[in-house]
Amino acid sequence: MHSSLSMSRRSLLRAGACLALCALSPPGRASPSAVREIRIVAAPTSAPLTGKGEVDVWAYGGQIPGSELRLRQGEPVRIVVENRLEQDTTVHWHGIRLPNAMDGVPGLTQPPIRPGESFVYEFTPPDAGTFWYHPHANSLEQLGRGLAGALIVDEAEPIPVDRDLLWVLADWRIDESGQIWPGFGNMMEAGMSGRVGNTVTLNGAVPADQPVRAGERIRLRLLNSSLARIMALRLEGHDPVIIARDGQPCDPHVIEGGRLLLGPAMRVDLLIDMQGEPGRRYQVTDEFYEGLGYELTGFAYSNELALRTTALDPLRLLPNPLSEPDLANALRHELTLEGGMMSLMMGGGMMHGMRGMSGMGQAVWSINGTSMTGDGHAGMKPLFALEREGSHLITIRNQTRWWHPMHLHGFSFRVLTRNGSSVPHNQWADTVLLAPEDAVEIAFVADNPGDWMLHCHVTDHQMAGLMTVLRV
């Protein structure tokens, strides 16, 4: 009976997804017989994260980070995910604008993938860019043990660079035995900065020098897959140009102040003309946490003559097919983030000012006074509804003493203002980083129907209440 009901629900979800795909897929790009199929297995394995022996991890495709998926814009894909863990899982395709039934939130958009079972995700990526995939079930532990991978959607025509590099950055809490410390869900950490690790890896290994050649042009894709670590990267001796954020092209611009802020779940594409001297080494440092800066890696130039000596023309990515919000007629909404250890203690108790807690676990944070804990589940009541096809402007106010990378499923949004000042360079995102006391305005067209998660991507914060649902 249980198996029969499960198959029935999945058939309905897939049927709904096919109808939605018809609306999202460009016509004439591929026939059903040409749909590409990919298989991914989530299972325990081990990896040399520390360089001092194997660490027990959970991984996609038996590697850390998980198998790199490369898709093509506008071409349909069928991804079969097999669960060989001893607990339920799902996969969320972070940043991809896809049908709601394919979004990977257990209970809300799909049944969980039980141990030994599989689930088929089918979608057509409408946007080219740098995205990623990770669980949305017991996500604090599953992501913290390694379940994350990059998903690159290639442009129809490759851009003119010498190399296209990907850096998947992550941190890990390693204990004295050289294994991942199991204390997930610590409430003290959940009420502050989250589970920040003590070991940082680049593409799943202890960062080594990055070999480069003078005069070459590199596209560097950065992805922060950490549970909580925010990074402020400085590239000594170089002037990288930001050409995309969260997969969406922007006006090319240099990094403000020389430090690139990269919160959990955020991605940035950089264009770097390697202008260093042959034979020299240049540091890449992370300076976010005061007094705890460290060298992440370094650019090590070969002794070869420069590949080219004349400056290259500027490069701009073609825009993705995003609907431009009508700001003059946009409906306005407000989200207020509250809570955290310092704020709540000053307010007179852990649950001060919070109501409507749903899900599993203890609430430390709230959005508009309401807390949802966990990863998502059936029957989650939307905070508010958005008129379909309408333009919507949302003000997010961070009234806490902590940083929050806020992620909206199913959409990319234009980042309009921060603390009353216009945000330049035509920037779109799916995750926006708010400093303490920040107020940010974002806008988008609600052209993708369904119930969509909005949550902080410091995973401890999400699990402890900083999560809600918006209905289109």
Uncertain segments? 1-32, 348-360
Q: CATH H-level name of the largest domain... which superfamily? A: Cupredoxins -  blue copper proteins
Number of strand elements: 33
Write down the CATH class of the largest domain. Mainly Beta
- The CATH architecture assignment of the largest domain turns out to be Sandwich
Helix content: under 10%
Radius of gyration, taken over Cα atoms and rounded to an integer in Å: 22 Å
State the distance separating the first and last CA atoms. 33 Å
GO molecular function: copper ion binding; oxidoreductase activity
Keywords: Metal-binding, Oxidoreductase, Signal
Organism: Mesorhizobium waimense
Protein name: Multicopper oxidase family protein
Describe the structure.
The chain is mostly beta strands and 472 residues long. It has five helices and 33 strands. The strands form seven sheets. Strands 20, 22, 25, 27, 28, 29 and 31 form a seven-stranded mixed sheet that branches. The relative contact order is 0.13.
